[in-house]
Amino acid sequence: MDIKIFKSLQALSAVELEQQQNHYVSDDIPPAAIDLKASHEYKVPVINNDYFFRNCSVAIRKHNRFAPYPVHTHQFFEINYMLRGHATEYVNDHKVVLNEGDVLLLDIGSQHRIDALGTNDLLINVLFRDRNISLDLISQIQAAKSVLYDFLINNMATNPKKGQYILFKNFGSGNNEIQATFDALITEYYHQRDFADTIIKSQLTILIAQLVRNNRIPVTTTSPTQKLAIDLLDEIRQHYQEISLEVSRAA
């Protein structure tokens, strides 16, 4: 990783300086980011599907240290990457411990909270929406018989199982390709050079493919609803110029 970017991640932000003093979360997410209706329904703050993606397709944020982050959920996918140190999260009340190099993939609707991080802990959050996942990638993941297929296609089902998560362990120095892709993602995001958004979307696709390649966890049998979702998406992809609602229904 670019040494300047790494040092900037290590440096204390204004929010972290405040949290270091009082050990209480000083939230840098404004009220406009909260879906009030969904928050009332789920009884926890729900971060909406728009706020982080106003100027980018994939958002990358350092998790602020020194204060526990309260339970919340969101309308997009989130990847937590433990760049340095360790962290303890609670996802749907399940304790999840992240060590350096670990990757946690959180589903839309996952309710999670995070214990306070220390000075030497760096947790990177990669936020993206389901529209950033291409049908070609989903088809290849299905062919690889990966648990990620069931996870990603779940949100296309009529009654999706909300709040799932997958923990990928031991992607530290022992797995250079995934570490290198995360480094490239973070570097590209913080440099913000020309075509950064396009490059970051491509790197996200590479990252997901690498997670599949390095984790041969078998997927469950595809349900009829999931198969229908894939068939409809394939129909749209092949005939997007002339397709209509009637054609989709007929399919």
UniProtKB/TrEMBL annotation:
<dbReference type="InterPro" id="IPR003313">
    <property type="entry name" value="AraC-bd"/>
</dbReference>
<feature type="domain" description="AraC-type arabinose-binding/dimerisation">
    <location>
        <begin position="69"/>
        <end position="120"/>
    </location>
</feature>
<dbReference type="GO" id="GO:0003677">
    <property type="term" value="F:DNA binding"/>
</dbReference>
<keyword id="KW-0238">DNA-binding</keyword>
<dbReference type="InterPro" id="IPR037923">
    <property type="entry name" value="HTH-like"/>
</dbReference>
<dbReference type="Pfam" id="PF02311">
    <property type="entry name" value="AraC_binding"/>
</dbReference>
<dbReference type="InterPro" id="IPR014710">
    <property type="entry name" value="RmlC-like_jellyroll"/>
</dbReference>
<protein>
    <submittedName>
        <fullName>AraC family transcriptional regulator</fullName>
    </submittedName>
</protein>
<dbReference type="GO" id="GO:0006355">
    <property type="term" value="P:regulation of DNA-templated transcription"/>
</dbReference>
